[in-house]
Amino acid sequence: MDCQVQLADHFMTTPTQKASTPRRGRPRDPERQRRVLDAARQHFYTHGYDGASLDSIALEAGVSKMTVYSYYPSKEALFEAVVSSRTDQVIGELRGSKDLDPRRPDESLRKIGAQFQELIRDEVTLGRFRALFAASSTQPEACLGFYKQGPERLINDVAKYLHAANEEGTLRVPQPKLAADVFLSMFLGGTHLHAMLGLGVPAPAVEKQLLTEAVRVFTAAYARR
């Protein structure tokens, strides 16, 4: 049984999705939309969510502010689109991958864990986390959008794989979503805090050791008895 886990393929209806609904009039220009997202990604990283300006993003993308609004109706929607595009970019190669075989949880969880490490150690991702933690008391909508486009999305997708492994009988996972949260949380300890504080990301050897131990502990805990 092959498990086609879609890491980054579902979500609730968000302002981002509403904004992507084609409108009447001039056809969308994918290249122009890409420029808007690229400019927004760099701008949010440099200035944080609070300091970001749609006027400046439009200027950096070489488009009008109305063009930005034609794609994304608000700064929150644009921010969600940036987060979603980055998540898709990093874990897109696992999307629908038959390599994530529920008959081989050790191997598949190593691949999922390695992609998650790549995502959360990325300096742009770290910058967004820092900016949102700082703005959490004043920008709850942006924080909610980030959570739903990032952590919640990943947890749900990993839960799909764990459900498949449970059905296959290679792991015993009565609560897949809880187990997925546990697995991903294993990469958010001291090394992640070290990176979040700007003290440096873990060396590749440290990351590999953490990944090996996380998979070992998790599969032992959820092994079929």
Describe, in plain words, how this protein is organized in 3D.
- It is a single chain.
- By secondary structure, the chain is mainly alpha-helical.
- The protein contains 12 helices and no strands.
- The protein has a domain at about 75-220: Tetracycline Repressor, domain 2, CATH 1.10.357.10.
- It is about 70% helix and about 0% strand.
- α2 (about 30-50) packs antiparallel against α3, α6 (about 105-120) packs across α12 (about 205-220) and α9 packs across α10.
- The radius of gyration is 19 Å and the shape is elongated.
- The two termini are about 20 Å apart.
Mean pLDDT, as a whole number?
Answer: 82
Shape: elongated
CATH arch. level architecture of the domain at 76-221: Orthogonal Bundle
Strand content: under 5%
Helix content: 55-70%
Structural class: mainly alpha
The CATH homologous superfamily of the domain at 76-221 is called Tetracycline Repressor, domain 2
Oligomer: single chain
CATH class category name of the domain at 76-221:
Mainly Alpha
What secondary-structure arrangement, pairings included, does this model have?
Blueprint: H1 15-19, H2 30-51, H3 54-61, H4 65-71, H5 75-91, H6 105-121, H7 123-135, H8 140-149, H9 151-168, H10 176-185, H11 190-196, H12 204-221
Structure at a glance:
The protein has 225 residues and is mostly helical.
What characteristics describe this protein?
Tetracycline Repressor, domain 2, mainly alpha, 225 residues
